[in-house]
TrEMBL record:
The keyword Hydrolase applies. This is PHOP2 phosphatase. Mg(2+) binds at D8, D10, D179. Its cofactor is Mg(2+). The gene is Phospho2. Substrate binds at D19, D99. It comes from Rhinopomastus cyanomelas.
Length: 240
């Protein structure tokens, strides 16, 4: 009897957007308006590539970026929740599916001593180039019309479950914890016994409510959370 916990990262595990937090490293802690306005729908990763070039051109080094990223606040109650999951790894497999990047997530989780809670992290690959500039690539290619070009979270989840099944691992229940519009696609993949935990007041909760209004409700159960203590309460019921 094992449960799979799937976490988004930005505005879910951390209480900010890690990609916009890095702007604190920029001169005067802001981007030039031309760069800021250059983002096109569905092409966020390309936009962040330009941001990292700008930071590199302005002499922002890896150690300064790391110092800045490790000051990002966790969502209320999240550290306690992740410690609880870590203490119950016999019951929970735990993965992150995020539109952030490998460097940011690794820095943030390791600084807090929480990286071992997660079995796998699926996010955009990032590395520092020979010139010291952070470069980010799209996670994968996909054909989903709903999702940004670089990442379809449903595809990631489906492929992970298929791989686990090949190794003889199946889950009693999937609990998906997220907040954003790009979390709707994987939530619509969940089945009747699964749970979507949508952060209160954020895009995922609103999109699920809109589907219900349109008489196209999601198949799984939906619980709304405002702090990670709400998620912990539910997981403790599961463990019982």
């Amino acid at each position: 009897m094992k449960f799979l916990l799937v976490f988004d990262f930005d505005h879910t595990i951390v209480d900010e957007n890690s990609d916009t937090w890095i702007v604190k490293c920029a001169p005067e802690k802001k981007l030039p308006s031309g760069l800021r306005n250059s983002c096109q729908p569905g092409l966020w990763t390309e936009y962040m590539g330009r941001v990292f070039v700008y930071l590199g051109d302005n002499g922002v080094k890896e150690d300064e970026m790391k110092r800045t990223m490790t000051t990002i606040p966790f969502t209320a109650g999240m550290v306690d929740l992740l410690c609880f999951i870590g203490e119950n790894k016999d019951l929970f497999d735990c993965i992150i599916v995020s539109d952030s990047n490998t460097v940011f997530i690794s820095w943030i989780l390791k600084a807090a001593g929480l990286h071992k809670v997660f079995d796998e992290v699926f996010t955009n690959p990032a590395a520092f180039s020979s010139t010291g500039c952070l470069t980010v690539q799209n996670f994968h290619a996909h054909r989903c019309a709903q999702c940004p070009k670089n990442l379809c979270k449903r595809k990631v989840l489906k492929e992970f479950l298929d791989k686990q099944l090949e190794q003889g691992v199946s889950y009693t229940q999937i609990v998906y914890i997220g907040d954003g519009g790009n979390d709707l696609c994987p939530v619509m993949f969940l089945k009747k016994g699964d749970i979507a935990m949508a952060r209160q007041g954020y895009a995922l909760e609103k999109k699920i409510a809109q589907l219900a209004q349109d008489l196209r409700p999601v198949e799984c159960s939906v619980l709304v959370w405002s702090s990670a203590a709400d998620i912990m309460t539910y997981l403790k019921l599961l463990v019982k």
